[in-house]
Amino acid sequence: MSELRGALIGCGFFSINHLHGWRGVEGASIIALCDRDAERLAVAGDQFQIARRYSDAEEMLSKERLDFVDIATTVSSHRALVEMAARRRFPVICQKPFASSMEDADAMVNACREAGVPLMVHENFRWQSAIQTVGAIVEGGEIGAPFWGRVSFRSAYDVFSGQPYLATGERFIIEDLGIHILDIARFLFGDVARVTARTRRVNPAIRGEDVATILLDHENGVTSIVDCSYATRLAVEPFPETLVEIDGSEGSVRLNQGYELLVANKRGTYRKDLSPPLLPWASRPWHNIQESVQAIEQHWVDCLRAGREPATSGRDNVKTLALVEAAYASAKTHGSVDVGLQMQKIA
Ligand code: NAD
Ligand code: 89V
């Protein structure tokens, strides 16, 4: 079977992980690059020896023979670029946060549906191997029916030096990081009916909130807590590990710092080291995120070839985005928010 031909739009900070990941994926490669910034385009093109380079996305999409487009730009450009790809009937991957409003997300989902092309959001955190293992334990019934969970990301890592835009937006941790953690909560416990959230800004040098505590009432009765902080100095810095606690009717699972898995049930307890593989191109501490990039890219290729909807399709990711919107609405009013009301905005 011939390799799928992809084009990448956006050659910034995170795109280098996309490009390394694509090299490790079976069945696809990136054959053209686009960035409005000539220097970034040249650096990525030279590093990955990709000669076909464009400063204008429309020109690239009109000239290249492609099987898909991978968008790794920041959120403000997502809608225009996804709609551009859909107009040309190219299957498309879009980085998170998919959109800054439910209306934009809905427009992109509809554009791709009407064009008859698959759309996947690059929501990679659930593709970390440790998170997949925890999901498989729950799915396999080892702890019975989950009734309570906590998905936690607390750190003091300086994310602003690599991603300076994170310091300037009105919204910060829920939109950028919490979105991943909320998606993991959906992955582990199912869709959510109500959201109650509280936020704080501790770091005076940034504009948005850097601490969020979110209570989720899942549709199946599970209660979970998603908590995120970039203002938490710990004895051993855990960035970028997501920690998980799940209590079920027959036992419990813990994913502790250092990728330690602990499972307890009536048969006994066991412990496992779930440290992610260090891919040849990866660098600590980012290696768990980096392996998840390659995993989600492989998932895209497998789905595209099989005609299956990706796990984090646009249609699916709108439900994660609704939790982000509900969390901000709850934090603003100090009330609890019906997720159905967020979804109604696009019904
Ligand atoms: P960045 O600002 O470093 O890079 C974005 C690049 O896109 C820039 O070089 C910019 O010139 C280019 N660009 C923007 N609009 C364009 C357009 N219309 N045409 C061509 N080029 C255009 O941003 P980044 O830190 O690489 O983040 C990119 C996205 O990746 C963000 O949405 C961010 O949230 C996401 N991200 C995801 C993860 C993850 O684990 N999934 C991690 C980090 C960042
Ligand atoms: O996933 C992200 O978008 C990143 C990081 C993991 C650093 O928060 O901003």
Structure keywords:
single chain; 347 residues; alpha/beta; 9-stranded mixed sheet; 6-stranded parallel sheet; 15 strands; globular; binds nicotinamide-adenine-dinucleotide; binds (2S)-2,3-dihydroxy-3-methylbutanoic acid
What does this structure look like?
The chain is α/β, with parallel strands linked by helices and 347 residues long. The protein is 36% helix and 25% strand. The protein contains ten helices and 15 strands. The protein has helices spanning 15-24, 38-47, 57-63, 78-87, 102-115, 129-139, 173-189, 287-306, 314-333, 339-344; strands at 4-9, 28-34, 52-54, 68-71, 92-95, 119-122, 146-154, 192-200, 211-218, 223-229, 243-248, 251-256, 260-265, 268-273, 336-338. The strands form two sheets. The chain has a nine-stranded mixed beta sheet with strand order 14-13-12-11-7-10-9-8-15. Strand 12 and strand 13 (260-265) form a beta hairpin. Helix 1 (15-24) crosses helix 8 (287-306), helix 5 (102-115) runs antiparallel to helix 9 and helix 7 (173-189) packs across helix 9. It is globular, with a radius of gyration of 20 Å. The model has no long low-confidence stretch (mean pLDDT 98). It binds nicotinamide-adenine-dinucleotide and (2S)-2,3-dihydroxy-3-methylbutanoic acid. (2S)-2,3-dihydroxy-3-methylbutanoic acid is lined by residues 159, 163, 176-177, 180, 240.
